[in-house]
Amino acid sequence: MGSFNGYPSLLNLKTKELQEPLLEELYRLLTFCLRYANNVQACIFQEFRIEEDSVMFVVNLTVLLDCLSIFSASSLPGMTTALKMCYRGYGYPLTLFLEESGVVTVCKIQTQEPEETLDFDFCSTNVVNKIILQSESLREAFAELDMSSEVLQITMSPEKPNFRLSTFGNAGSIHCDYPKDSDMIEAFHCNQTQCNRYKISLLKPSIKALALSCKVSLRTDNRGFLSLQYMIRNEDGQICFVEYYCCPDEEVGEFET
């Protein structure tokens, strides 16, 4: 790993030495950045150093994933890959050092100025309802619903059905109802009845994160905006979060079918 030393940078990220599962986890997490945000905590890295309050830039996601997978096709069982990412500052490329069995590959990716980030103004003080679910149970629920439907209707209520998922597709109307004391629900905080529809085409990208997660926090605010926060635990027990926000397609009447 001595080949990595001495490279000046404002941002210095190095995965735990010889921890390929961690590198694979980072690779998988980065594939979700097209539609929503990842919160990768500093503790997941062996070394995390940043000399400014914040650093923000844009890189081509496809190029970044291609660079991270350079060794994946040729790696032998037991082989591990270490990664270091460096960024000198405005106008400089993002530099990746990948090392495996003493072989170091250096990739430089052109950076661009970030566009203004879409702000959903989702404030925790405006959250009306919140449910924490086991991901496995939510995956099973999605498997039962008709994904030919244009919308997914989510109903949360202090009264029964406390939590309902509904679709309206080629197979007709399908409803999955879960009481608040269901085994799939770990926490249920519902202040008022809300029934909103969300376009399934906008929710489908989040299913990738659902497949890797162990828990899901589902929140809605007073406008019906939906927040999905997926908790992902890697093989070392470290935790990352993927958040997804979606505006309602339309608000419907109470328990409309």
UniProtKB/TrEMBL annotation:
Gene3D superfamilies: 3.70.10.10. InterPro entries: Cell_cycle_checkpoint_Rad1, DNA_clamp_sf, Rad1_Rec1_Rad17. SUPFAM superfamilies: DNA clamp (SSF55979). It holds the Pfam family Rad1. Keywords: DNA damage, DNA repair, Nucleus. It is found in: Nucleus. One of its GO terms (cellular component) is checkpoint clamp complex. Its main location: nucleus. GO terms for biological process: DNA damage checkpoint signaling; DNA repair. Belongs to the rad1 family. This is Cell cycle checkpoint protein RAD1. It comes from Chiloscyllium punctatum (Brownbanded bambooshark).
